[in-house]
Design brief:
The protein is α/β, with parallel strands linked by helices. The chain is 38% helix and 31% strand.
Length: 231
C-alpha cells in the first residue's frame, strides 16, 4: 500500500476523487481514504499545515495502515536559481531548518533520536518520481527540501536556507513526515511543485500560482501509482 499525504486539501483532492473501492476512516479529526489509485492500493489523507500536524498524521497512518512507503506531495517555495513556477523538485533528503540546539554544540537542524541533520529519502522512490516527472517534460531536479513552521517570504531567510542547508525548496511538512518515517523504518519520498520564490513576493505568488503547481504534482503522482502497480 502507498501512503500519500498532502498538507492542504487541494493538493490531494483530485487524487481522492479518482480512487475506487474506497473506504473512509477517521482517526481523531483526520480522515483517511483507502482504496485503489490508478490500480495501486493506496491510502490518502490531508494532514494540515505545519510540522506537528504532519508528524501526527504520519504516525497515525503508519499505525493504522502499515503502508509500504509514504509519499508527501504538494507545493513549495523555490530557493535556488532556475526554479520556475510549476517546476518539480524531488527530495534527495529533508531537513528541519527550525531545529536549533547550536547553543549546546550541535549543528543547526540536528535531529535528536536520529543523530543527523539530513534525513535521506528512499532512492528507488525518488528515482521513480523523477522518471514520472520527466515523462511529462516538466523541468525537475533532485535537491534538499527544508521544512519549518514558517512560510518563507524573505530574501534574507531564503539565502540563509541555501547557505546553511544547501536547500532547493522550503515548505512546512516534508521533514516532519520524513522524521516519523525514519523512526518507524518506513521508506519515504517528498515531491514539491514550485508555487513561489520564497522571497518578499511569495505570498502573492503562492495565492496566484498554487493551483497551477498542484496540477503538475497531481499528474506525477497518478503516473507514479500506475507504475508502482506494475513493478
Amino acid at each position: 500500500m502507498i501512503g500519500i499525504i498532502g498538507a492542504m486539501s487541494e493538493e490531494v483532492a483530485e487524487l481522492k476523487s479518482i480512487m475506487t473501492d474506497t473506504l473512509e476512516h477517521k482517526i481523531g479529526d483526520l480522515t483517511f481514504i483507502s482504496g485503489k489509485l490508478c490500480g495501486a492500493d493506496a491510502v490518502i489523507t490531508v494532514c494540515g499545515e505545519g510540522k506537528v500536524n504532519a508528524a501526527m498524521c504520519t504516525q497515525a497512518m503508519i499505525m493504522e495502515y502499515a503502508p509500504e512507503f509514504i509519499i508527501n506531495t504538494g507545493v513549495g517555495g523555490g530557493l535556488t536559481d532556475g526554479l520556475r513556477i510549476g517546476d518539480i523538485v524531488v527530495a534527495s533528503s529533508v531537513v528541519e531548518h527550525d531545529l536549533d540546539a547550536s547553543a549546546l554544540g550541535f549543528e543547526r537542524g540536528f535531529v535528536f533520536g536520529l543523530g543527523c541533520v539530513e534525513m535521506p529519502c528512499d532512492p528507488k522512490i525518488s528515482a521513480l518520481l523523477m522518471e514520472c516527472t520527466e515523462n511529462f517534460g516538466i523541468p525537475c531536479r533532485r535537491g534538499i527540501i527544508a521544512s519549518g513552521d514558517q512560510f518563507i517570504n524573505s530574501s534574507e531567510k531564503k539565502k540563509w536556507l541555501v547557505d546553511t542547508f544547501n536547500a532547493s525548496v522550503c515548505e512546512m511538512e516534508g521533514a516532519a513526515i520524513g522524521h516519523v518515517c525514519m523512526r518507524n523504518k518506513v521508506p519515504f519520498g517528498v515531491l514539491r511543485s514550485i508555487s513561489d520564490g520564497g522571497d518578499e513576493g511569495a505570498a502573492v505568488s503562492f495565492t496566484e500560482f498554487a493551483a497551477q503547481a498542484i496540477e503538475n504534482s497531481v499528474k506525477i503522482i497518478k503516473l507514479f501509482a500506475e507504475r508502482v502497480k506494475t513493478k
